[in-house]
Design brief:
This protein is mainly beta. It has one helix spanning 2-11; strands at residues 24-32, 40-48, 58-59, 85-86. Strands 1-2 form a two-stranded antiparallel ribbon. A two-stranded antiparallel ribbon has the order 3-4. Strand 1 (24-32) and strand 2 form a beta hairpin. The radius of gyration is 26 Å and the shape is rod-shaped. The structure holds calcium ion (2 copies). Residues 53, 55, 87, 89, 91 line the site of one calcium ion.
Length: 104
């Protein structure tokens, strides 16, 4: 019975760890019997939400392309630019170079 009430309640509201600072949802549950003389009880429920990886890393640059310039005679290993991404889930980020080459 209690489990059914959880489903009913949270079906309308998606649980979201990332947007809630307190990482929890609080609500009250009331149970009523169907006896000759009806009784009811009430409980407060605190639901602690755990994080899942449901957000993609986001680069700090707002543009789609990150543009950098480098002279053609720079030595291999020279600094080019810094790119940084953050992950809303707080996951560690690994950076890779793709094999996509664009010729102008
Ligand atoms: Ca993530
Ligand atoms: Ca998340």
């Amino acid at each position: 019975m209690l489990q059914l009430m959880f489903c009913k309640y949270f079906y309308l509201r998606r649980l979201d760890y990332d947007s809630r600072a307190d990482r929890q949802y609080k609500f009250d549950v009331k149970a009523t019997d169907h006896g000759n003389k009806s009784f009811s009880g009430q409980a407060s429920v605190v639901l602690y939400v755990t994080n899942i990886n449901d957000e993609a890393p986001v680069f700090s640059e707002e543009k789609e392309d990150i543009v950098a310039k480098i002279r053609e005679d720079q030595k291999a290993g020279s600094y080019v630019t810094t790119v940084q991404a953050v992950d809303p889930d707080g996951d560690n980020i690994k950076y890779y170079f793709s094999r996509k080459w664009v010729l102008y």
